Amino acid sequence: MNDTILLEGLRLECILGDLPHERTFPQELFLDLELVCDELPATRTDALADTVDYVAVAERVRTALIAARCRMIERAAQLAAEAAFACDARIHTVRVTLRKPHALPGVVAAVRLTRTRP
């Protein structure tokens, strides 16, 4: 059995894009993560040590994306997945949805990817 931990609507501001103004000014982004694990013991033990610390995942992903200054949204999503994997070996699959709501007037640009731990 699998358990999935969801982080939805993580807001961050970072440099993301290839256009001159995108390289200068941080943009608002929204990130959703699905962290898929084998059945977590916390469902029985009610102990933090027996689950994925989603606060640590959120902070590590945020820090990685702010530092990366990516040009492509696809690269930023890949880095988010890698940061999540680095937080906890129990995570075997990560689904990332990264939204860039101000990329175009009236349109939310986004990418969604799924990565499985090698």
Automatic annotation (TrEMBL):
Domain named Dihydroneopterin aldolase/epimerase: residues: 5-117
EC number(s) per entry: 4.1.2.25
Keyword terms: Folate biosynthesis, Lyase
Gene Ontology molecular function, alphabetical: dihydroneopterin aldolase activity
Name of the protein in question: dihydroneopterin aldolase
Pathway(s) the chain acts in: Cofactor biosynthesis; tetrahydrofolate biosynthesis; 2-amino-4-hydroxy-6-hydroxymethyl-7,8-dihydropteridine diphosphate from 7,8-dihydroneopterin triphosphate: step 3/4
InterPro entries referenced in this protein's UniProt entry, alphabetically: Dihydroneopterin_aldolase (IPR006156), FolB_dom (IPR006157), GTP-CH-I_C/QueF (IPR043133)
Record GO biological process: folic acid biosynthetic process
SMART domains linked: FolB
Superkingdom to which the source organism belongs: Bacteria
Family from the record: Belongs to the DHNA family.
Gene3D superfamilies: 3.30.1130.10
Any Pfam family the entry gives: FolB
PANTHER family: DIHYDRONEOPTERIN ALDOLASE 1-RELATED
Membrane-spanning parts: none
Catalysed reactions listed for this entry: 7,8-dihydroneopterin = 6-hydroxymethyl-7,8-dihydropterin + glycolaldehyde
Organism: Candidatus Spyradenecus faecavium
Entry GO terms, CC: cytoplasm
